[in-house]
Write a structure and sequence with these properties.
CATH class of the largest domain: Alpha Beta
Largest sheet: 5 strands, parallel
Distance between the termini: 11 Å
Number of helices: 10
Strand order of the largest sheet: 2-5-1-6-7
Number of domains: 2
Radius of gyration: 17 Å
Helix content: 40-55%
Order of helices and strands: EHEHHEEHHEEHHHEHH
Number of strands: 7
Strand content: 5-15%
Amino acid sequence: MLIIGLTGSIGMGKSTAAKRFAANGIAVCDADAEVHKLYEAGGAAVAPIEAAFPGVTGPSGVERPKLAAALLVDPSGFKRLEAIVHPLVFAAERAFLQAEAAKGAKMAVLEIPLLLEGGGEKRVDVVVVVSAPAHLQRQRVLERPGMTAEKFEQILSRQVPDAEKRARADFVIDTGATISETQAEVDRVVASLQGRMGTAYERYWA
């Protein structure tokens, strides 16, 4: 099974690309979606996050605005948060890949925003980076509810610059044009990967 690592900085269009991979019949594990599950009431991350950041959880689980505010005040808290969340997401990704391998899937996608930041490229066979012009990225992100310029800059500061991501990618998908053009680029990537064998699953996930 070939494992495709899909990544890109905030606002670059990972979700659009992921949906197109799925439309091509390739299962996608979305790391952000897994984090959402972990943060919900009863999620495995709620109690340890409350212990590390008192007052950021409530009846519905982790209250993201409160957690974001705590991290804005003390950015060193990101390391504590990652130590809690990353092993849980990794376990979810392993379960996903093992299930896909059991089905006989030829490819699977791990959609991971911080793939390159965390050295995750070693655990995939192919790195696909989505990218758009900086002005378009900024516009998209600042249109999100609750987003501020300060929060956007903090997020960017923790991400590998887009130019470096592009340089380290096996494939770059331009998401700065129309959705249909982006979809066509994903289709071309999928076509070029047909028949390629992967080694990452046996090395890291089986």
